[in-house]
Task: structure prediction
Amino acid sequence: MLLLMRTVGLLSAILFSSTAWANCECGYTVNGTLYTDLTETDFLHIKNINESGWQPQTYTVNRETARGPYGKDASPKQITTNPLKSRYDWAGNGIRGGDAGLQITVSNPGKGGMIPMGEMGTNRSDMLYGSFRAAIKLTGQKGTCGAFFWYLNDTQEIDMEFLSSQFNQTSHPVNLVLQSQASVDAGFNAGNTNAFQSHQLPFNPSEDFNEYRFDWFSNRVDFYANGVFLKSMTGDGVPRDPGHLMLSQWSNGDPNWSGGPPAKDAVMTVSYVKGYFNSSETKRQEDWQKRCKNIKAPNATCEVPEITAPPRNNATAKTYFFSQEKNMTVNQTISGGNPNTIVSGAWSIQASMHSIITPMLLFSLVFFMDWCS
Result:
C-alpha cells in the first residue's frame, strides 16, 4: 500500500506540475506588458519572399488620388531579397551586392506619369496592440518617403515616416504620425492635427541601419529609435481595431512631402522586423488559453530583449530572435529566415510529448492500482 501511495504521488506530481512544458508558452513581455503572439522576420537570410510572412502589394494610384504631380505604381518588381552570402554573417553585402536585406526601391519614372515604388504587408492582419520594431537603412537619394507602419485604413494608422529630402548634415528627422479621421478631414494632412510630430534623430538614417519601434496601447502609442524613447501620442487618433504591419517607400513628386521623383533608383533596406502583439482572432485566443496552463510557471513568459546598440555590424546586427531558439515559439506562426529558424505552426515537441505521455501515465496508474487490489 505504501508503494501504491508513493506511485500515485509521483504520477500526480508529473501530471499536474505547474512547470511550463515549453518556454514562452504564455507569451512575451515588453516593459511588463504581456503579448500572446509574435511575428519575426530575418530579412538578412531570406532568399524567397514567399517564405517571409509578407506579401508584396500591387496597385496603381493616379496623380489626382495620389495628391501630387505624379501617380504611384506599386509593384513586386520593386522589392528584392538580397541575403547575406554566409548564413553565419549578420552584416555586410548581400549576394546581389550592396547592403544585405529586403530592398524596396523607388525608380525614376522617365517620361511616364507613374512613379514605380514598393510596398509590403504582413500576411497576418489580426494585430491588436503590441510592440513592433524594424531595422532599416533609409535611402540617401532625395525625393522619397520611406515608412514603417501599422495599418487598418486611412483613419487608423500608425506611421514612422522618413523624407529623404530632409536629410542633410544638420537635420535628420523622423515624422511620427497617427492617421485618423481628423487627418482625413484635414485633407489627408496629419500635419494639421495634434497627432503629428517631426522628431530630430541624433544620427542620419541614410548612413546605416537603425532600429525604429512603436509600442501601441489602447490609450497611447510610444515611439523609439535604437531603444531610446522619442515621443508618446494619445487622443482619438490611437487605433482601436486590428490591422497589419507595412513597409513602404514611395514618391508622388509632392514638393511639400516626398519631393522627387528621385534622379535614380532609391533603395531602402530592411534587415529585420519583429512584432509582439495580441491577436484579435478567436482561434488564436483559444490557442493561448490551451497552451498557457500556468502563467506564473518558470519560463512561461519571456521578456523581449532590447537592443543595446544600433544593429550595424556582425556584433550588434545579430539581434535576438525567439524563432531561432529551440522551443520558444510554441503554437506560433513563424516564417522563414535564418536556416536555424524553427518553423512551428503546431505545438512544440515538449507540448506534444505531454499530450502523449499524460494518457500513458494515467493508464499505467489505473492498471497498477487494479493489480495491487
Notes: The longest strand covers residues 266-279. Residues 311 and 317 are 4 Å apart (CA to CA). Helices lie at 2-15, 63-66, 181-185, 282-291, 349-372. Residues 7-18, 338-369 have pLDDT under 50 and may be disordered.
